[in-house]
Amino acid sequence: MLKILYFASLRERLEVGAESIDLPSGVSDVGGLLQLLTARGGEWASLATVKNLRFAVNQEMARLDSPVGADDEVAFFPPVTGG
């Protein structure tokens, strides 16, 4: 099972902090996973419009073309600002 984590405003918007899914055979990278999630519609579709959305695979920063596997942990989080 692929574990997905959502942080900060994403968690609030989607009303879920984490979930586990069976990774479909056609999804092999973060970009494919993002497309799968946005295809759910509703608030999920808004993931595609988050500016500077960040990703981590197994607690390491990742890009859209970073590979994902069935036993990985993928985190989605918005950019963090500080002051």
Describe this structure in words.
This protein has about 80 residues and is α+β, with helices and mostly antiparallel strands. The protein has one domain: Roll (Ubiquitin-like (UB roll)), CATH 3.10.20.30. About 20% of the residues lie in helices and about 25% in strands. The chain is built from 2 helices and 5 strands. Strand 3 (about 55) and strand 4 form a beta hairpin.
Assign the CATH superfamily.
Beta-grasp domain
- Please indicate the percent range of residues in DSSP E strands (runs of 2 or more): 25-35%
Shape: globular
Q: Strand arrangement, largest sheet?
A: 2-1-5-3-4
Helical fraction equals 10-25%
CATH class: Alpha Beta
Tally of alpha and pi helices: 2
* Major sheet attributes: 5 strands, mixed
Rounded Rg: 12 Å
SSE-based structural type: alpha+beta
Per CATH, the architecture is: Roll
Structural key phrases:
alpha+beta, five-stranded mixed sheet, 19% helix, 83 residues, Ubiquitin-like (UB roll)
How would you summarize the topology of this molecule?
Layout: E1 2-6, H1 8-14, E2 18-21, H2 30-38, E3 54-57, E4 60-62, E5 73-77
In short:
This protein has 83 residues and is an alpha+beta fold. The protein has helices at residues 8-14, 30-38, and strands at residues 2-6, 18-21, 54-57, 60-62, 73-77. The chain has 2 helices and 5 strands; from the N terminus they run βαβαβββ.
